[in-house]
Amino acid sequence: EQHKLEEFREQQGRTSDGIRVVLRANIGLISDIDVALRNGANGVGLYRTEFPYMTRASFPDRDEQYHLYRRVVEGFGGQPVTIRTLDIGGDKALPYFSPPREENPFMGWRSVRVSLDNRDIFRTQIEAILMAGQHGPVKMLFPMISSLEEIRACKAVIAEARANLRREGVGFAEEIPLGVMIEVPAAVMLAPQLALEVDFFALGTNDLIQYMLAADRNNPLVNKYYDPLHPAVLGALRQVTRVAKKLEKGLCLCGEMGSDPITFLALVGMGIREFSMPSPFIPRTKALLKTISAREARRASKEILAMADSQQIRAYLQRELKKSG
Ligand code: PEP
Ligand code: MG
């Protein structure tokens, strides 16, 4: 395994027919930087900033957040780092910020909804991200967007943050690419309109699957309903990929289905060329890529998109993987 790490660290991800596929890291803590670098990540596709918030006794102030983000950005030495704003609620709680008890936390007050209702906290985080943007190529990502109003409200907070920093005479990056997570079915339907507001999409399949199929991602009782190869899920992913391509927007898939070989094959076939995953999966995904022909994957993906049954899709992809591997 160690030998493999060495072998793949310096290599770019490429299919057997030479198509470049970018593999970035999902990170949460400072200690993840080293792991990502050792595994040869192309920067960070998803920095889950709630992790540092969760391990503290109170909300970190702006400077603390700035220093933290700056360390991450500098750690990746010029490679892009996508910083996602706070995504608490659902299954992620902060010890010092107790939201009201909810019957349905995943359908409730979570993620960007919490941020938009706590503008000071939100603006402070955005200021810290803008400040960190001076030290390398930072992108800003908003989670759980389900309407145009929400992304517009987020952009209004960015404008406030900029004005604030300017007034204070604090340095910050003027141009930061903005993105939205596509992880609520409404965002799939609205992708063409959302694309006009942002520079890139991040496909959050962990949540997208649970919301599309009404199956809690953490509930073992409905495990069998939580199916990444459900034809409706594949259709949605295909739709978003098409929109991104047509409107020339970036697209990175950062859900767990990017690190399973079977689903990975289908996603490469759909035309997805950027993934973000837990770092330990990166070297083995590069190895897998070398055995996949983009052309064959594309043909396979056309086949499965015409199938109505997930079992059949899985069996088909399994056969395709065996053929190539
Ligand atoms: C997702 O929902 O797919 C995702 C990447 O974000 P998280 O797992 O943090 O909700
Ligand atoms: Mg999510």
Automatic annotation (TrEMBL):
<protein>
    <recommendedName>
        <fullName>phosphoenolpyruvate--protein phosphotransferase</fullName>
    </recommendedName>
</protein>
<comment type="similarity">
    <text>Belongs to the PEP-utilizing enzyme family.</text>
</comment>
